[in-house]
Specification:
By secondary structure, the chain is an alpha+beta fold. The chain is 43% helix and 21% strand. The strands form three sheets. It has a six-stranded mixed beta sheet with strand order 5-4-6-3-1-13, sandwiched between helices. The chain has a four-stranded antiparallel beta sheet with strand order 10-11-9-12. A three-stranded antiparallel beta sheet has the order 2-7-8, with helices on one face. A hairpin with a 7-residue loop joins strand 10 and strand 11. The model has no long low-confidence stretch (mean pLDDT 96). The chain binds alpha-D-galactopyranose. Alpha-D-galactopyranose binds next to helix 5. The site of alpha-D-galactopyranose (GLA) has 11 residues, from helix 5.
Length: 387
C-alpha cells in the first residue's frame, strides 16, 4: 500500500483535488490479554501494516463523503444525523467525528478515502487502526493538532463503545497511536503510565499464523466476559466495604476464592484467568530484561491455555495451531487479541522457523482445507501524517 494508490482513488472519486494523507498501524500483543479493561498490564507494539486515509475539508457544514477503497463502497452521511450511517466501516468515521465534536473540535464536512493492508478480523486491530487514522486526520484538519495523543486514544475507544457495540479496553487504540518502530510498550492500563521496551530477541523471530477464522468482537461474547469480570469485582467490593475495588486489578486470589460460590463457576473461572494473566505480564517483563526467552515462551503457552480453557475465547483452529507450535519446539505460542478466531503469535528460534512454518502450513491445510496466512512481525511506528 502506498500514498499514490490511495491518492489516485481519492482524486478520482471526489472532485479531483488532493487532501492530506494519514496512516495508523494495527498491533500485536506479546502478552496481557483481556487485562486492559481489568486495569491490568498489556505488552503491545504497533506493526508495519495498517490503514492509510486521504482527507480534506469539503466546505460543507456537516456532509461527509466517504469511500472505502478496498470494499469499493461509497457512503455519504450527515454529522448531525443522530443515527449515523449503517455501514459498519462508516460508523468508525462517524464515531470519531462525533467524539471529536464532544472534545470541542469544530469538525465540519469532509471527504475521505481509505485503504488498509492489515488483515481484517485477524485480531490485529484493524478497527483501532481506522479510528486512530481518522482521529489523526481530523485533529490536523479541524483541531489544529491540539487534541492530545491520549484524547485520540480515548476517542477511538469511545467510538467502539458508543457506535460499534464493543466495550473494549484501551490497548489497541493506545498501541496504534503511541507505537514506535523496534519497541514494544508495557502499559499500565490503570495509571496509563507506559514504557518503551526495545525488542530485538537475538536468535528468535516473532511470527503470526492467521487461522482465517474471522474474529468478530461486536455482539455479546466479548462484552459478556467483561461483564463477568465486573460481576466479580462488585461481589468482592460488597464483601469488603472498607476497600476500594474498581477492577480485578484491585482484587487478590483470596478475595476471588471468597466470592466463588456467590458469583458462580463461569464468572469465577474467567476472573481466575485475568488474575493469572496480570501476573504473567510482569513475569514476562522481568524475563525479557534478562534475555530469558524460554520463560517468555512458557508464559505465552500458559496464556493460551487460560484463554482457551478458562476464558473460553479460542476455537478449534487456534488450539490446533498452538499444538503444532508445541510439536515443532516453538518457544512460545498463543492466541493473540480478543480471540474467537484470528491469529496465534509465535516466538520461534530462528533455526526452527522454516521447518515450523512448512509443517504448520501442510498439516493445517490437510485438516481445514486452507493454509494459515504467515505474517512476519515488524514493529513499526504509530499514527502519523504522511503528506
Ligand atoms: C480486543 C480489545 C482490547 C483487548 C483485547 C484483548 O482487541 O479491543 O481492548 O481487550 O481484545 O486483550
Amino acid at each position: 500500500m502506498d500514498i499514490e494508490f490511495v491518492r489516485s482513488r481519492f482524486v478520482k472519486h471526489f472532485d479531483g483535488k488532493t487532501g492530506n494523507v494519514y496512516a495508523s498501524p494495527g498491533r500485536i500483543n506479546l502478552i496481557g490479554e483481556h487485562t486492559d479493561y481489568n486495569g491490568g498490564f498489556v505488552f503491545p507494539g504497533a506493526v508495519d501494516k495498517g490503514i492509510m486515509a486521504e482527507m480534506r475539508a469539503n466546505g460543507t457544514e456537516d456532509t461527509v463523503m466517504a469511500y472505502a477503497i478496498d470494499l469499493k463502497d461509497r457512503v455519504d452521511f450527515h454529522l448531525d444525523d443522530p443515527a449515523g450511517p449503517k455501514a459498519s466501516w462508516a460508523r468508525y468515521i462517524y464515531g470519531i467525528a462525533k467524539e471529536f465534536q464532544k472534545l470541542g473540535v469544530p469538525v465540519k464536512g469532509f471527504n475521505i478515502a481509505f485503504a488498509g493492508d492489515v488483515p481484517l478480523g485477524a485480531g490485529m486491530s484493524s478497527s483501532a487502526a481506522m479510528e486512530s487514522c481518522f482521529a489523526c486526520g481530523l485533529n490536523d484538519i479541524f483541531g489544529e493538532n491540539k487534541v492530545s495523543k491520549w484524547d485520540m486514544v480515548l476517542a477511538g475507544q469511545a467510538t467502539e463503545h458508543n457506535y460499534c457495540g464493543v466495550n473494549c479496553g484501551i490497548m489497541d487504540q493506545f498501541a496504534s497511536v503511541f507505537g514506535k518502530a523496534g519497541c514494544l510498550m508495557r502499559l499500565d492500563c490503570r495509571s496509563r503510565e507506559f514504557e518503551y521496551f526495545p525488542f530485538k530477541p537475538d536468535g528468535y523471530r516473532l511470527v503470526l499464523l492467521n487461522s482465517k477464522v474471522k474474529h468478530e468482537l461486536a455482539g455479546s461474547p466479548y462484552n459478556d466476559r467483561r461483564n463477568s469480570c465486573e460481576n466479580v469485582v462488585k461481589a468482592i467490593a460488597k464483601k469488603h466495604p472498607e476497600g476500594k475495588f474498581e477492577t480485578l486489578r484491585d482484587c487478590t486470589w483470596e478475595q476471588l476464592e471468597e466470592v466463588r460460590a456467590e458469583v458462580g463457576e463461569e464468572d469465577y473461572t474467567r476472573a481466575h484467568f485475568v488474575l493469572g494473566e496480570k501476573d504473567r505480564v510482569l513475569a514476562v517483563c522481568d524475563a525479557l530484561l534478562q534475555g530469558d526467552y524460554e520463560t517468555v515462551g512458557q508464559k505465552m503457552y500458559e496464556t493460551h491455555y487460560g484463554l482457551s480453557k478458562e476464558y473460553e475465547v479460542s476455537c478449534e483452529e487456534l488450539d490446533y495451531l498452538n499444538d503444532l507450535a508445541k510439536e515443532n519446539g516453538v518457544t512460545g505460542s498463543r492466541i493473540m487479541g480478543g480471540g474467537f478466531g484470528g491469529c496465534t503469535i509465535n516466538l520461534v528460534r530462528a533455526d526452527l522457523y522454516s521447518k515450523f512454518i512448512a509443517d504448520a502450513k501442510q498439516k493445517f491445510a490437510a485438516k481445514y482445507g486452507h493454509e494459515p496466512e504467515v505474517i512476519d512481525v515488524v514493529i513499526g511506528d504509530g499514527s502519523r501524517k504522511l503528506c
